Amino acid sequence: MHLVSSNASGWNAIVDVLRGRKIVVLTGAGCSTESGIPDYRGPETKRRARNPIKIGEFLRSEEGRRKYWARAAVGWRKFDSKRPNPAHEALAVLEKTGHVLGVITQNVDRLHQYAGSRRVVELHGALSEVRCLECGDITSRNALQAKLMKLNPHFARLRDIQMAPDGDAEVPESLVSDFDVPSCNRCGGPLKPNVVFFGESVPRRVLDDALELYGEAEALLVIGTSLAVFSGLRFVRKAAAEGMPVVMMNLGHPERGFDCVTHFWDQAAGESLPRLVDDLLV
Ligand SMILES: NC(=O)c1ccc[n+]([C@@H]2O[C@H](COP(=O)([O-])OP(=O)(O)OC[C@H]3O[C@@H](n4cnc5c(N)ncnc54)[C@H](O)[C@@H]3O)[C@@H](O)[C@H]2O)c1
Ligand SMILES: [Zn+2]
What we know:
Layout: H1 8-18, E1 23-27, H2 55-60, H3 62-79, H4 86-96, E2 100-105, H5 111-115, E3 120-122, E4 125-132, E5 138-140, H6 141-151, H7 173-176, E6 191-195, H8 204-215, E7 219-223, H9 230-241, E8 246-249, E9 263-265, H10 269-280
Parallel strand pairs: 1-2, 1-7, 2-3, 7-8, 8-9
Antiparallel strand pairs: 4-5, 4-6
Zinc ion (ZN) is lined by residues 132, 134-135, 137, 184, 186-187, 189.
């Protein structure tokens, strides 16, 4: 049954189905748009075509990595300044009160943890970490940022550059070509943000953590995702196949998986989730 509505009976049905059930939450970029981080396929962003770097280009060529890090050097400043919004805060409250068991997120912004969520599985990793492709050493993105700026001081002065999703930015080609890219402190190997790129799959260990959390759920609450990417879609399909309630709160219908949704609510997560807290806590 789809309750595609914004009326009181639709909302009450959602509260009823979530009340008393152990909830696992699946989030996507739409959970962070109200923090000022653009999504890929939302009402505002769908029309703007983007071409994020793919894993093959990044791994194959130094040029690909130079392009990535030049753009990320600019994008990071804005990305790192973003703070949790009422949607993240509401999910953290619901975990503290025992309504939510944990969050499986497709986001790479760590905003769930910054809001106080404790059990978070990051399907696509986190931009705040950097990994060496040779020795696997994990270091902090902020430490790398300091190094990037030291090597490329003219980049520290760049202003008014348009922020793209996931810490990317539109940097003119002319500035990319002479960008100096640092390598691993330990072994000199190439560095990669510790995130899953387009064309990569979720690491097995992370998927196992997500499946373990999902396995404890009695209801799946899906927030702000187009479900275009299989990493998130897989949980919605699994829940539907197992007859689990799937409550989705999203601006507009998702691109895939809508047939798996049992209850749908079309509203910004920063409004719907605080309201859910109010209603579940009475
Ligand atoms: N914040 C981030 O970390 C971030 C941002 C952009 C992209 N990404 C990456 O790109 C992929 C994008 O896929 P996706 O499905 O997560 O996002 P998406 O961009 O494909 O879809 C976002 C969905 O959220 C909806 N939405 C937008 N604002 C909303 C709001 N305030 N409340 C409720 N719904 C809202 C949109 O209408 C859309 O359906 C992810 O896998 C992620 O790794 C991450
Ligand atoms: Zn290394």
